[in-house]
Amino acid sequence: MLFSNNATLFSVSTTTPAASGREAVVGLRLSRSGSLLVFAVFMMVVMWALAASVLLGAWYLTTRSEGLVWPALAWMAATLFALAAFRNTAPGTPPIGCVLDWFAFLWAETVIALCLITVVTTGVRSALRAAPHADDTPVL
Which pLDDT score is estimated for 140? Predict the structure, then answer.
């Protein structure tokens, strides 16, 4: 029997267990390849780093009370939607609910969405407080 490992996402090794009788026995061990595991961990680290950067940006914007900062909001919203595209580049196109989702993607999406909502709410409140009211205009 000729056996070859052509799967890029898996590491396959053979073992030859003791045969009992006249049959041929071959054992196969199938596991994820090392490069796949390294890339998946790298993707999780990147997702958490992006979520942490959005969290720091949200903290900065909400403590400064500068109103709505549109470039920051655009960056946060772009990060929110870019993570979904980044997740879909995972090797083997894993289904929704895989380990990558539970350890990084879903949490990062949640953190970024909550930060975006908080920044918008705080920015609108700050902008409404700073805006002059119609009743305060002088009459000439």
Answer: 54
* Cβ atoms of residues 118 and 55 within 8 Å: no
Structural domains of the chain, count: 1
Higher pLDDT, 30 or 8: 30
Domain region containing 93? 34-130
What is the pTM for the complete model shown? Answer: 0.75
Q: Compute CA distances 10 → 7, 126, 139, whole Å.
A: 6, 54, 78
- Whether the Cβ atoms of residue 122 and residue 65 lie closer than 8 Å to each other: yes
Mean pLDDT over 62-85 rounds to 92
User: C-alpha angle 38/41/47, rounded to 5°?
Assistant: 140
Reduced DSSP (H G I as helix, E B as strand, rest coil) percent helix, strand, coil of the chain, to 5 = 60, 10, 30
